Amino acid sequence: MANPLQLKSLNHISLVCGSVEKSVDFYVNVLGFIPIKRPSSLDFNGAWLFNYGIGIHLLQSNDPEGMPKHAHINPKDNHISFQCENIAAVENKLQQLKIEYVKSKVEESGIYVDQLFFHDPDGSMIEICNCDSIPVVPLSEDKVWSCSRFNCNIQNQHHQHQIQQMIPM
């Protein structure tokens, strides 16, 4: 598998916010992220959050009133997706929090993935799914992995390649 830029993993995503405080509340109390220290050299309002192996950097908009409004939840729009253990529990929690959402289902060869889509306070789309049940099938190979297995296997191949390069022949 080619890795022309020698990438290791996704580090973070940045989201522009109308209110950093409202977005921090949402990402901490709804999605379970943890606030982390930002570099003191950053001279603008924002917050850094971390969980699930990814960072979210919230950036205060210079024009909060001019930010685009996203009234309609469209599963085909840009979004970030999180896997969950129990989609019914997530749906129940969204109902308790009175967060509007849209349900969707994907099917591939008798395997079903349930999806819930909703917006953060600034209209960024969030998807919660049980996506790990659908296999990741590289188009160039005949191997099949689940999402978690695919990432693990890529890392193992990378580490094995590094070890092979260290061993003199």
TrEMBL record:
InterPro entries: Glyas_Bleomycin-R_OHBP_Dase, Glyas_Fos-R_dOase_dom, VOC_core. Residues 9-131 form the VOC domain. It holds the Pfam family Glyoxalase. Keywords: Coiled coil. Gene3D superfamilies: 2,3-Dihydroxybiphenyl 1,2-Dioxygenase, domain 1. Residues 80-107 form a coiled coil. Signal peptide: none annotated. This is VOC domain-containing protein.
